[in-house]
Amino acid sequence: MRAILIIDMQNDFSDFGTLPVKKSLELANRISNLINSVKREQFKILASLDYHPINHVSFNQFPVHCVAKTKGSEHIEPLNNFDYDLIIKKGTKKNMDNFSCFYNGKRESKLKKYLTKNNITDIYVCGIALDICVEATIKDLIKNNYNVFLIEDLSIPLDLNYVLELDKLTKINSSKI
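Predicted structure:
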């Protein structure tokens, strides 16, 4: 079984958010097109959300962003109206940050249990920011022996010069899915 994992496509990371990633609004539309085209092919569609309490430790390093139950923590349109198979909230512990959606605090998130239960071995990852949360999630997936595919044309880094190079990572274009 295969899954598409969409990382942190949230309002606070949108072009006009508190921690903006350039071209994320355009990216949201392209990811939505991919979701609509593959759902018929029995892909599970998963998404992560940065979901911080007020006064979260990450606010020492980054502007306040993705505070739980605020508009900023919601998915960017049109991704906010999609019926995901699983949504993973991360960074919910006040004194601990998680870039990877594989963990929440020091414990594994519900992602691994879901992947195991649904016999998912191939995971296609996209979203923002490639150089932070997307990379951290990919590293944890590889470490846990999943087949990981980075959808390059549907992933954007904060640092536009960043290039992700990892062993056991396959890079593909969304047109190949």
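Summary: Residues 24-38 form the longest helix (15 residues).
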